[in-house]
Structures are given as C-alpha cells and as structure tokens.
Specification:
The strands form two sheets. Strands 2, 4, 5, 7, 8 and 9 form a six-stranded mixed sheet that branches. About 5% of the residues have low confidence. Helices cover about 35% and strands about 25% of the residues. The protein contains five helices and nine strands, in the order H-H-H-H-H-E-E-E-E-E-E-E-E-E. With about 210 residues, it is an alpha+beta fold. It folds into two domains: about 140 residues, Immunoglobulin-like (Sandwich), CATH 2.60.40.3760; about 50 residues.
Length: about 210
C-alpha cells in the first residue's frame, strides 16, 4: 500500500480541502500507519494551554496594598488619638484582605480548555462499509473520555462512552442498522467532569448488510 506523505497529511489537517476529502478519508480508513501519523501531527500542532495565574500581577497588587497601609499610618504630628485611629484603620485593612482569602471556597478542578487549533477528526467508518464497523478518530485534545454517537437525519440513535479509540461497534447496535441506509457518527472529547471540550464533524457511513 502506498502511504500518504507526511506533508500531505499536515496540509489536510490544517486546511481540510473538500476536493481531496474523499481520497484522504478512504485511505485513512484502511491504513493504520497513516492514521497514527495524522494523530501525531494533530498532537504536535496543538499549542500548550496558557497559564491561569499571573505571578507578576499578584506581586504588584501586594506592593500597592502595602503602600496604602503606610499612607494610613503616616502622620505629620504624632498624638495618642491619631495613633489609635491609624491603628484601627490598619487593622481593618488587614481584615479586609485576610477574610476573603480565609473564607473563599476551595478551588475545584480547572475546567478543560480547548487549545486553539486542537480538534478531533473522525477517521473510520466512512462511506460503504463491509465487515466489522470500528469507530476510530485522531485527537489533538487531552480528554478523560470520548462520547461516540450514531444517528440518522437530525436524530441520535445510539450513544456510548469510551476511554480511548478505536471502538468496535457495540453488538446491540449492528442489528438495528438498515443495510444500505446512510448514517452519521461523531465523537466528542470530554473532561474529567463529563463536560464536552470539542466535537468532531459528522461523518457518514452505511453498512452492506449482515452483521456489521
């Protein structure tokens, strides 16, 4: 079998040219080596998620709070009454800063963020399928699980979740699919809370009859 060049796979991943889609998808459905190469390209081109905490901003805020405290405690002429007022104001400032931090709820797990350019691409099944139906995809997203859905028209017929692909078609699905009828399938990446990160485009397929 002649394999697709890495440059062609990279161009198809970035541009998804419609005039070449049928050829590339058909080849990927039949070639394990090219599917692995495409998955590696998708992972390599996914940029890292930006940091959530800006340490420089936190330090600057601390300096500003200290400057405000010093201005409150600074008096041109010292007297007992002025010192008491300043001390009370300083204590109030400390409490205003400390209480929100001490009563704040513990942070939960950070929500999954979809890096720009990262996606999930369906590979197989595509077009008319003979023999076993196996759902396979390339993912540039770090996901805890994946949800695979099969449908017809605007309705979803079946849905299941898996930790990774490829996923053989569940035995209960096959007998319910009509030979020659067109169906679509899609895969959605989920975070550890079961929240959708991103979904692949729909890809159509049909079975040739018998046990798919």
């Amino acid at each position: 079998m002649t394999h697709l060049a890495e440059a062609d796979l990279a161009r198809w991943h970035r541009e998804h040219p419609e005039d070449d889609r049928a050829r590339v998808v058909a080849h990927l459905a039949a070639c394990d080596e090219c599917r692995r190469a495409l998955a590696a390209i998708v992972r390599a081109e996914a940029p890292a998620t930006p940091a959530r905490f800006a340490s420089a901003d936190f330090v600057d805020a601390g300096y500003r709070a200290r400057a405000r405290a010093r201005s409150i405690l600074h008096f041109r002429r010292f007297d007992a009454r002025g010192f008491a007022v300043g001390l009370a104001l300083a204590a109030g400032l400390v409490l205003a800063i400390a209480i929100p931090w001490s009563t704040r709820e513990p942070a939960g797990p950070a929500p999954a963020v979809r890096p720009r350019g990262a996606d999930v691409q369906p590979l197989s099944p595509a077009g008319a399928v003979r023999g076993d139906v196996v759902f396979d995809w390339a993912s540039g997203v770090r996901a805890s699980r994946y949800r695979v859905e099969v449908g017809a028209g605007n309705g979803t017929l079946f849905s299941t979740e898996t930790a990774r692909g490829p996923l053989p078609m569940p035995a209960a699905w096959g007998p319910k699919l009509q030979p020659g009828a067109d169906y679509w399938w899609t895969v959605t990446a989920l975070d550890q809370n079961g929240t959708a990160i991103t979904s692949s485009p729909r890809q159509t397929f049909s079975t040739a009859g018998g046990r798919p």
